[in-house]
Write a structure and sequence with these properties.
Length: about 475
């Protein structure tokens, strides 16, 4: 029988979701190491030859056995082999490898459940404490109480996932633990969205009938589905969520995405970055710490293991770091990890010089969050050529701008990338901020966040050849509101 779910020690391996968890917390594991673990578990306790593993993990590629040994070492480290006498993998000399752990469950999840039974929530364990998100928690909870579909929308790294998990945790009692978290970035294939959700809910899985299995699992149950990172499969998610809500009146859905689903009944909550101190002379440490962005930066410095206390002397630099990083939690965490090496002044200099885009985060971060540059590249991949070109042009301006000003500045370009529809789409995708102008209720202005400007002003390689074909007439400060 093909393995779908396997449990061993504190670990649970969900094959359809390609997810390994330890005590309910996802274990970061590369795709090669995960392929190897799945192959060994499915064949346990038999030995899998090196040739079979090479063919399974590197199909259609020729690689040497050194790659195999490296992935085994990665697996052993992830599984904590040797800790408390645990042992899961064995090297059989001259033959290959085998899984030697005790499998307490292997096979298909149960095809049915007793009426009224409670299934454990699939929420990840708490990894970080939220800073400055109390009002957002309250607002999203209120919207869920009033409606059935809430979408938390915002720029990558702004903290949508962490917030959604905490909202789900606060909702466990209301839904009798039927709160399920599905990270769609782990398997971003549109056709597999129903199967991915069904697997998390432990519905019986037949690929040809995933929708029916999911529908059967949801029928008659008061359930909260949290669909995380919807942007890469947003059309499929929008269609599926619409169907779920129409067929299952007791189900509610909370999504996170860089743009709304745009379906009936959706309430959009736009998650703003953390508030930063305004520019002011003689800022004190106590005053700076009243702002959640500075508070998160200081917590991140402390978590890096370097002794640090924010002083009045450093408060102005810390506030400037927060402003230049737009109060985005992921960027602030990266900055906090670098203060021990560079100092507050050195970190500020790197932020001003744009080197910060290549800072590496935690090893446990998802691939799209390994650097803030890769985080923005994830958003850039979802843009049309016209949207990419518009952002590169806008990144050359340091001012807030209005739509009429943008259209006027683009009037000499052959492609007129800065049209109203393109700007509206970039607002939807959380890459442009809308700002009102004092005394002008009829005028809306736009601006790029500093972080987005830093990325697109560098004209990453995927954009370079595209931009060469266009005339870009905008000069710094040419766009004005």
């Amino acid at each position: 029988m093909k393995t779908v779910v396997a449990q061993f020690g504190p670990f649970r391996l969900n094959v359809p979701q390609r997810l390994l968890e330890k005590n309910g917390v996802p274990v970061p594991l590369g795709s090669r190491a995960l392929d190897m673990l799945i192959a060994l578990v499915e064949s346990a306790p038999s030995v899998v030859s090196k040739r079979e593993l090479l063919a399974r993990v590197w199909p259609n590629l020729v690689v040497d056995e050194g790659n195999l040994r490296f992935q085994v070492a990665v697996l052993r480290k992830a599984l904590g082999e040797g800790q408390d006498g645990s042992r899961y993998l064995s090297n059989v000399a001259g033959r290959g490898y085998c899984f030697v752990g005790t499998l307490s469950q292997r096979g298909e999840p149960p095809s049915s459940e007793a009426p009224g039974c409670v299934v454990a929530s699939s929420l990840p364990g708490r990894v970080v404490d939220l800073v400055g998100r109390e009002q957002a928690m309250h607002d999203i909870g209120s919207r869920l109480a009033a409606g059935r579909l809430v979408s938390v929308v915002g720029l990558g790294g702004v903290g949508k996932t962490a917030l959604a998990i905490e909202v789900g945790r606060a909702s466990l009692a209301d839904f009798e633990s039927e709160v399920h978290f599905i990270d769609l970035s782990r398997f971003p294939v549109p056709s597999r969205v129903p199967a991915t959700i069904a697997a998390t809910l432990r519905a019986p899985l037949q690929a040809s009938a995933a929708l029916e299995a999911l529908s059967g699992r949801l029928r008659g149950r008061r359930t909260l589905l949290i669909l995380d990172n919807c942007e890469q499969v947003i059309d499929e998610v929008a269609t599926l969520v619409g169907r779920i809500l129409s067929e299952h009146p007791q189900v509610q859905v909370l999504t996170t995405s860089r743009e709304p689903l745009r379906i009936e009944g959706e309430q959009v909550y736009r998650l703003a970055p953390l508030e930063c101190p305004p520019e002011r002379p003689a800022l004190t440490a106590a005053a700076a710490l009243d702002f959640p962005a500075v508070k998160l930066l200081v917590r991140s410095i402390a978590a890096s293991g370097h002794p640090f206390e924010l002083t009045d002397r450093d408060a102005t630099a810390a506030a400037e770091i927060c402003r230049r990083l737009d109060g985005i939690p992921l960027a602030l965490q990266f900055a906090g990890q670098k203060v021990g090496a560079y100092g507050i002044g050195g970190v500020l200099a790197q932020v001003i010089g744009q080197q910060w885009l290549n800072w590496r985060g935690r090893r446990s971060d998802s691939p799209r969050h390994r650097t803030f540059g890769t985080n923005l590249a994830w958003s850039e991949e979802l843009l049309s050529p016209r949207e990419r070109l518009a952002l590169c042009r806008l990144a050359r301006s340091n001012t807030v701008f209005s739509l009429p000003a943008a259209e006027l500045a683009a009037s000499g370009a052959r492609d007129a990338a800065l049209d109203a529809e393109t700007l509206a789409s970039l607002v939807d995708k959380s890459l442009l901020r809308v700002e009102g102008r004092e005394g002008r209720s009829d005028l809306r202005c736009y601006r790029l966040l500093n972080t987005t400007r830093d990325f697109f002003s560098r004209a990453p390689r995927p954009l370079a050849s595209h931009l060469a074909a266009f005339h870009c007439p905008l000069e710094p400060n040419e766009l004005r509101c």
